Amino acid sequence: MGVDFPLAGAEKHEGTGQSSGITDQEKELSTNAFQAFTVHSAVEEMDGLDDVENSMLYYNQAVILYHLRQYTEAISVGEKLYQFIEPFEEKFAQAVCFLLVDLYILTYQAEKALHLLAVLEKMISQGNNNKNGKNETGNNNNKDGSNHKAESGALIEAAKSKIHQYKVRAYIQMKSLKACKREIKSVMNTAGNSAPSLFLKSNFEYLRGNYRKAVKLLNSSNIAEHPGFMKTGECLRCMFWNNLGCIHFAMSKHNLGIFYFKKALQENDNVCAQLSAGSTDPGKKFSGRPMCTLLTNKRYELLYNCGIQLLHIGRPLAAFECLIEAVQVYHANPRLWLRLAECCIAANKGTSEQETKGLPSKKGIVQSIVGQGYHRKIVLASQSIQNTVYNDGQSSAIPVASMEFAAICLRNALLLLPEEQQDPKQENGAKNSNQLGGNTESSESSETCRCSILACSAYVALALGDNLMALNHADKLLQQPKLSGSLKFLGHLYAAEALISLDRISDAITHLNPENVTDVSLGISSNEQDQGSDKGENEAMESSGKRAPQCYPSSVSSARTVMLFNLGSAYCLRSEYEKARKCLHQWLMPPSTLGGVGDQPGHMVKPHLY
Fold first, then answer.
1. Band (194; pLDDT cuts 50, 70, 90)
2. How far is it, in rounded angstroms, from Cα 255 to Cα 46?
3. Is 388 helix (H, G, I), strand (E, B) or coil?
4. How many other C-beta atoms lie within 10 A of the C-beta of residue 228?
5. How far is 240 from 261, CA to CA, in rounded Å?
6. A GO term (biological process) for this protein (predicted)?
7. Helices assigned H by DSSP within 464-484
8. DSSP line for 401-468
9. Is 166 domain-assigned?
10. pLDDT tens digits, residue range 114-161?
11. How far apart, in whole angstroms, are the C-alpha atoms of residue 7 and residue 168?
């Protein structure tokens, strides 16, 4: 699990802002404005744009669609405008291109954004050369001409700086850190130590694993110099605290992370209070405000981050409350539904602190001892967790942290994942508009998410006693092409448990073969593995890099021990006690390879006693 809201810190083009959850009133206001532009226009009717006024109309329509978070429709309008961009005035043509670049980055089409940025660079260079040629033929002594030239030069430099910033964002999205490192230098040269440039550099260092340096860069940014949310639609203080929370999350300092996210929520609430304080009439609450301020509220992204942090520090119920509020806006985000299901699972796990770390206490194995001497018998304690009744009579559709609701969340998550790789441009606009932070699942990310969802689905189905569904999910999990070692291990265990419950013990024994376990890694993407490749010879990755979560089993030998334990239990069910005894002896005798009994969970002692 991880925080899915990326580090912010890039200036937006004029008239736009970052995607965010918006209220119904804000959406209604934007929709009314959008309808005013679409009375006599449709994208399909854009056969020609000879009239400049019509092009302005379509551009404004695209900007409103952007603020409605309908990115696919906005891209359709913007790309139509781009087809007829040659006769446009230079400044307007640049505005269209910058809008499209922003939309491409929001929909994870970094390659298209980079192509358009190259066109923008060429456009600006040609425009500058044309102006220089006109100035040489004209009267260079004209005072107005020199002032105009200075203003034009400043605008060109500002546009170049913005291009470099967009390139950094695109390269960060592509995890191309070598190219990003070159562009970061250009950003620092053109924009100096401005807040956006420092935020971008901090994001870059964050991805490299240099967390202390990322924090240092954030602390050195001068937030007071920022124009403010009324001009940009962005609350920089909110971003600052959010970014600190993201960094400390990556450092596994989750209590500090939740502290910073709460600070970000406070800043966000203060900004929203200032925006609503300007008008006493609820009907005119949003009148007289720049459109970009409609997207200033970042409450739902921050609630998502708080939920993830709370889940990591062992507070699943508090995490559930945060995430269930965020899902009201980002209901088409499969990862959000997965996190909700994980909250439900953690809240109903019913294990001690030792068991969550993989080393449960052996106390309580023996319930009592009856009889004396030769007739002395040991009564083992029953595993009450297997007899837990999760449904207390209420509807499973009610959003409470129950296993029934977890099953619904996981079904939603599976339905929202694409069956195969799709072009983000072809996806439904409503889906894009509800992705958290404008995030559209890449193919690799979708496959990783699918594996986690299937593993959780199998676990929940077993807990609810739906063994056929559990077996179905486990089989699908084992068929996934990009399956981490740890999830493959769980897939075999869940499939075996379901098969045993279905009285198919022979099939279960096939899954419980210890040779099935060759790896228990959580799986690290190739992008993350290559993050340090751009470092110099004397520049090392910080020791406080991303840490793998502590999980059980922690090694292949421990995993095989679990397999042997379950295999012995399966043999017991078939009354093959000699085979069961051999399995138990394998993990009891050689502690150097399979781990001694002292390292094993307490319930593993029961078959040996039996």
1. confident
2. 54
3. coil
4. 12
5. 10
6. negative regulation of translation
7. 467-478
8. S-HHHHHHHHHHHHHHS-SS---GGGS-HHHHHHSGGG----HHHHHHHHHHHHHHHHHHHHHTT-HH
9. yes
10. 999 999 988 888 766 555 555 555 555 555 556 656 666 777 888 888
11. 13
Tokens at 445, concatenated: 């990310």
Alpha-carbon span 81 to 100, nearest angstrom: 10
Q: Does 256 map to a domain?
A: yes
CA distance 439 to 312: 22
Lowest mean pLDDT among 216-220, 326-330, 421-425, 583-587: 421-425
Tokens of 194: 């401005």
| Cα gap 113→340, rounded to integer Å | 33
Query: Residue 367 in 3-state DSSP?
Result: strand
Is the Cβ–Cβ distance between 174 and 204 less than 8 Å?
A: no
CATH number at 241 reads 1.25.40.10
Non-local (6+) Cβ contacts of 105 within 8 A are: 113, 166, 169, 170, 173
User: Would 182 be classed as within a structural domain?
Assistant: yes
Of 594, 535, 519, residue with least CA distance to 560? 594
Length of the chain measured in residues: 610
Distances (CA, A) of 369 to 4, 21, 365, 606: 53, 61, 12, 15
Query: Is position 118 within any domain?
Result: yes
Q: Residue 380: in which H helix or E strand, if any?
A: strand 377-380
Tokens of residue 581, six digits: 């005894």
Domain count, the chain: 1
Convert the pLDDT of each residue in 499-522 to its tens digit. Answer: 999 999 999 999 998 888 888 887
Amino acid letter for position 366: V
- Identity of the residue numbered 8: A
Contact 75, 432 (CB under 8 A): no
Contacts within 8 Å (CB) and 24+ apart, 101-105:
101/13, 101/166, 102/12, 102/13, 102/16, 102/66, 102/166, 103/66, 103/71, 103/74, 103/75, 103/78, 104/75, 105/166, 105/169, 105/170, 105/173
Q: State the amino acid at position 98 in one-letter form.
A: F
Query: Quick one: tokens of 184?
Result: 């970061």
* pTM, full prediction: 0.78
What is the number of other CB atoms lying within 10 angstroms of the CB of residue 542?
14
Exposure b/e, 305-344, CB count within 10 A at least 16 = b: bbbbbbbbeebbebbbbbbbbbbebbebbbbbbbbbbbbb
Q: Is the pLDDT of residue 437 over 50?
A: no
DSSP string, 421-434: ---GGGS-HHHHHH
End-to-end CA distance of the chain: 39
Angle at CA of residue 524, ends 448 and 591, nearest 5°: 110
Amino acid, res. 167: K
| Contact (CB, 8 A) for 261 and 316 | no
DSSP letters of 175-210? Answer: T-HHHHHHHHHHHHHHHTT-HHHHHHHHHHHHHHT-
Question: For residue 308, what are the domain limits?
Answer: 24-134+144-347
Instruction: Give backbone dihedrals phi and psi of 569, rounded to 5 degrees, phi first.
Output: -65, -40
pLDDT digits 0-9 by tens, 58-78: 999 999 998 888 889 999 999
CB 305 within 8 A of CB 261: yes
